TrEMBL record:
<feature type="domain" description="Aminotransferase class V">
    <location>
        <begin position="93"/>
        <end position="287"/>
    </location>
</feature>
<keyword id="KW-0663">Pyridoxal phosphate</keyword>
<dbReference type="Pfam" id="PF00266">
    <property type="entry name" value="Aminotran_5"/>
</dbReference>
<protein>
    <recommendedName>
        <fullName>Aminotransferase class V domain-containing protein</fullName>
    </recommendedName>
</protein>
<dbReference type="InterPro" id="IPR015424">
    <property type="entry name" value="PyrdxlP-dep_Trfase"/>
</dbReference>
<dbReference type="InterPro" id="IPR015421">
    <property type="entry name" value="PyrdxlP-dep_Trfase_major"/>
</dbReference>
<dbReference type="InterPro" id="IPR000192">
    <property type="entry name" value="Aminotrans_V_dom"/>
</dbReference>
Amino acid sequence: MASSPQVHHDRDADCDRCDRHANLNGDSKTHLPKKPRLSFITHSEILTEFSHHDTSVARINNGSFGCCPASVLEAQRVWQLKYLAQPDNFYFNELKKGIHRSRTIIKELINAEHVDEISLVDNATTAAAIVLQQASWAFSEGKFDKGDAVVMLHYAYGAVKKSIEAYVTRSGGYVIEVPLPFPVNSNNEIITEFRKALERGKANGRRVRLAVIDHVTSMPCVVIPIKELVKICREEGVDQVFVDAAHGIGCTDVDMKAIGADFYASNLHKWFFCPPSIAFLYCRKSPKLSELHHPVVSHEYGNGLAIESAWIGTRDYSPQLVVPSVLDFINRFEGGLEGIKKRNHETVVEMGEMLTKEWRTNLGCPPDMCASMIMVGLPACLGISSEMDTLKLRTHLREKFGVEVPIYFRSPKTGEDGSTGYARISHQVYNKVDDYVKFKDAINQLVRDGFTCTLLTK
Ligand SMILES: Cc1ncc(COP(=O)(O)O)c(C=O)c1O
């Protein structure tokens, strides 16, 4: 893995400035550098950190798979070798401590009350399964009545919708979708639809047992006003609120006390620079915590979700162990995670506005309703008229133009002639303005050539 000596030097230089290194048991109070940095990561160091990226591709899709810098990959390799060198010692003396250290860092970053509230799991999909499995047991064991409602957004992630089908519908739960407008103009539009869905949920004497709310919807992407929606759930007597924040930490503001949900899951491999795959699942401390179990049952069953999740059989736990190294990487940037998030947001909005101005189209939402990703209307003449078209166009952009960007199809309302396709662009620290210019030029060329999606066969 390519990496400059400068990167190592920077990391080591941080060590005596970071509280984490003062106490390797992980019970320090803060993981931010004690002294302000005098210099920050340079442009060329960022290039080195991401030199494993394919330079022929304008990768404006951090949202799908995230990214991991070379220094973190190196740290991961060290953990993997430690395991391979002496697995028994690693298992008995290193693994639990290391995972606890990572959970402590996450606990502080997200303002949770206690480290027991934080479990590390593989991904948001696993976290959703943990929460929904518990709901399924509540239906089958009679804690919830058959026919009680579970509310989710229409734009919930496809895999999570399937999980709701598998765990909730199958156990007798009644699923209600909140239809959301797109393009969306204000939080109020979302709040109004959410309230209406809760009313439908409570019709005929039903109870709403669980609300599954995305923090940042995947496709189309919009930041959901979760604080307001969680508050409404509390007022309306919804039993449990699960926030699916696959795009949470590093992408938008994540504060457990301010949000107030029962469960909140965020990937760490999307916007937090961890290698694949790792997510945290926050479960607010309450007697109900003991009802949550990892779906892969192993020796630690019954010892609490965090401990169960820290051993689900023999596997590679290195993504869960590199969280301290990820924080070292993040703290090389001005303003740390906050600074990265703020600059990603500002730049993605700027790039989105540059593209919509060029194509005389619109953004999918106002800038303050997006985080580090934004929906950009594509020229209507591209003739995007189905989801299949979006996939074909995406492949065409990748193969013919070296641009990687996901595309969303939106059925036009009758008599309307706006964009039927929206691109979801992301911005992460490795992106350059040229990436977005490459995308702009590719679309401009297609428009000049009279291209329409009907010309694509695959
Ligand atoms: C809102 C949402 N939920 C869940 C997921 C699933 O994440 P993972 O594939 O890492 O489990 C995604 C992935 O993009 C997502 O956007």
